[in-house]
Amino acid sequence: MDQNDIRNAMQSQIDLSTAPWHGCEQGNYLFDSATMFKRISPIVSPTGNEEFAAAEVVVCRKCGKIPPFFAEKMGDCPAEHVSECKK
Ligand SMILES: [Zn+2]
């Protein structure tokens, strides 16, 4: 099961009209999609060359950083890129 299957399964079981919109801690509800890259060193790269693997993330429009609820799902988001928006 990939990410899309999980999302589709969730959407067919949950009525999203009753779910609250989730905002950043400073009351910002708009997020932009952004891309981060992981550098794969030549030593472990399957091609033997330096490679970059793209990862889709979301950033808060207010502070330009990754909101904590998304960073938690990433697991390895660098602390300096996590939004410090606080209530
Ligand atoms: Zn923010």
Task: Summarize the topology.
Layout: H1 3-13, E1 31-40, E2 51-60, H2 68-74
Antiparallel strand pairs: 1-2
Bound molecules: zinc ion.
Zinc ion (ZN) binds next to loops.
Explained architecture:
With 87 residues, the protein is α+β, with helices and mostly antiparallel strands. The chain has two helices and two strands; from the N terminus they run H-E-E-H. The chain has a two-stranded antiparallel ribbon. The longest helix is centred in the first third of the chain and has 11 residues, at 3-13. It binds zinc ion (ZN). Zinc ion (ZN) binds at residues 24, 26, 28, 60, 62-63, 83, 85.
What characteristics describe this protein?
single chain; flat; 87 residues; 2 strands; two-stranded antiparallel sheet; alpha+beta; binds zinc ion; 21% helix
- Spatially, the strands of the biggest sheet line up as 1-2
Count every helix, treating DSSP H or I runs of 4 or more residues as helices: 2
- Helix % is 10-25%
- Radius of gyration from CA coordinates: 16 Å
Low-confidence segments, ≥5 residues, pLDDT <50? none
What kind of sheet is the major sheet? 2 strands, antiparallel
Average predicted confidence as pLDDT? 87
Supply the helix-strand structural class.
alpha+beta
Encode the helix/strand succession as letters: HEEH
Ligands and ions found = zinc ion
**Given the C-alpha coordinates, what overall shape results?**
flat
In what range is the share of β-strand residues?
Answer: 15-25%
